[in-house]
Amino acid sequence: MKELGATAVVGCTACGAVDPTVELGSLVVFDDLHFIVNRLPDGSICTFFTEPGDPGRGHWILHGGPFSDGVREALVAAAAETGHAARDGGTYGHVDGPRFNTPTEIAQLAACGVTAVSQTGGPETVLCGELEIPFALVGFATDYANEVKPGEPTPVATLVELMGRSTAIFADVLSGALPRLAAAAPSPVGTVLRFEQG
Question: Rounded distance, CA 76 to CA 73, Å?
């Protein structure tokens, strides 16, 4: 996308709510990230620059959250305009699949302030940040994570039905956000301090 000249990227994810006040079928436009392992699905470090001495290598230094305020604002405005309930802010928790998390794992994430979890979004956030591409992530709550509502697991039929609805809702929001992003290109997040290693 960077080679094609993308000026911003939007990620969409169906997610499990860790915060019990998130309504199923609603959106969360995240403003922070919990992705401690910082690894790709194959176990390698989440970076484009793996070779020592590559001048592209560096540290992504964040001044606040990892998501672009400009992209986030476009998503929040588009959600309001299209009549879809959206929470402005929340911490996205990246978890590894394919299994869902245990009650203890979800409780740990809740204690860290995570709002919702899914198995996509962490690497995309980091890789866009490393390339200085403004990025934001919007989630659609399809279920409550394990024991968020004790003794009340989200029925699988509800999860499947909501996942099916999510694509049209994401399409509505993206249709409203893209013209805003085209009219005013957002800025990258933080600073990438690049250094050569010998």
Answer: 5
- Residue 9 CB contacts under 8 Å (≥ 6 apart), including other chains: 1, 71, 124, 128, 133, 134, 135
Single-letter residue type at 123:
P
Tell me the one-letter amino acid at 77. Answer: A
- Render pLDDT for 96-118 as a digit per residue (tens, 0 to 9): 988 999 999 999 999 999 999 99
Q: In terms of Cα–Cα distance, which of 90, 56, 61, 60 is closest to 75?
A: 90
Looking at residue 196, what is its pLDDT? 66
Q: Which residues contact 61 (CB under 8 A, 6 or more apart)?
A: 190, 191, 192, 193
> Could you tell me the pTM of the whole model?
0.94
The C-alpha atoms of residue 121 and residue 98 are separated, in whole angstroms, by 14
Whether 96 is covered by a domain: the verdict is yes
* pLDDT at residue 198 in the model: 47
Look up the domain containing 129 and give its range: 9-34+59-147+157-192
